[in-house]
């Protein structure tokens, strides 16, 4: 054995002493001393020295008379003999959580103040979670003077379980305290513990649950989306002098092995900000801001019809069905362009289109392909009066698989209508956006 700790415990409360063991306080103390001497003698007999540390727990410490707990622990230490601080541990448990956290901390502070061998002893904590306050009690007891903490992963243990060592450690890490524990891949730890224990980690378990970094509320989603934008994050970090300060996310999910694609999930409570966040982060689709309310309204209608949550893939499908390469009465059959000057600043577009079943050949001019096509379409008698209100283009993917996604807003007398076009050629994507907007306008304005 290179290094080990031998742990002996004995319940020291009157509840156990008198009603379980049928022993007096003196007899309970004598039992603790005799057990310690027995351990010491056995270790010496078999040649063990400093490689074996000794830990004694006065079980039910928080239900034990404080002065008697100190008396027992002092006697145990004297029976063990002189030691280095790292070799002798007194573990002071809240075996059954019957007290609020501050009382546990008060008892630890009182013990540390009155126990005479503090320079040779590690004071350890062992909290149970019967009242749901094990983490809070442990944090307060550490501030009161304790050196060491015992706990389990995800709080496994008797009844409501032990202190969750993961939550405590991550709380401390989030405040800049290095615990020496590595929780950089919590999903892997969750899987291991679930397989070993047969007990699933609750989806809202702090740091570890599937939903702890997930927002369904529309206002939360909107704040997260804005706070996650690169420039906003950088400004917030400087303003607060912290590496991470994002609304509704108290730590960076990436620090514990979580990805960003599940930060926002969509149901009927979700708003436009969350829906756009999914499009931007999961599919690299960045629609103009003026499109956001309509996108949110359309996706929300789908969630209300379906009931419950919809997947990110369903959101993408709804977006493409409603806005991208929309079919209708306006169809482009042929497009060509002619540069009318050497600089390419004056372009002629020649179109062959179909509008409500009729074929038209149109020509338009402009300072670029888009303005030339818009000029040509305005000459079609079937096309309602409109002006180009907004245009945005963005590439998706990379290399040979890259496509262009163009967004276009057309201003009609009644309202502005947006749509998008996707194509491997940016000009064809823009034309697709124009025809999609015209086809959407035909349907929407007719319903108005």
Mean pLDDT: 92
Radius of gyration: 35 Å
- Report the order of strands and helices: EHHEHEHEHEHHHHHHHEEEHEEEH
Count of discrete alpha- or pi-helical segments spanning 4 or more residues: 14
- Here the CATH topology of the largest domain equals TIM Barrel
Taking the sheet with the most strands, its summary is: 5 strands, parallel
What is the level-2 CATH architecture name of the largest domain? Alpha-Beta Barrel
What is the CATH C level class of the largest domain, in words?
Answer: Alpha Beta
Q: Mind telling me the CATH superfamily name of the largest domain?
A: Aldolase class I
Overall, the morphology is: rod-shaped
> Structural class from helices and strands?
alpha/beta
Alpha-carbon distance between the termini? Answer: 82 Å
Number-wise, the strands total: 11
Flag low-confidence runs: none
Helix-residue proportion: 40-55%
Structure commentary:
Helix 3 (66-80) packs across helix 4 (101-114). The protein folds into 3 domains: 4-150, TIM Barrel (Alpha-Beta Barrel), CATH 3.20.20.70; 218-322, no CATH class; 330-447, 2-Layer Sandwich (Double Stranded RNA Binding Domain). It contains 14 helices and 11 strands. The strands form 3 sheets. Strands 1-2-3-4-5 form a 5-stranded parallel β-sheet. It has a 3-stranded antiparallel β-sheet with strand order 6-7-8. Helices cover 40% and strands 19% of the residues. With 448 residues, the protein is α/β, with parallel strands linked by helices. The radius of gyration is 35 Å and the shape is rod-shaped.
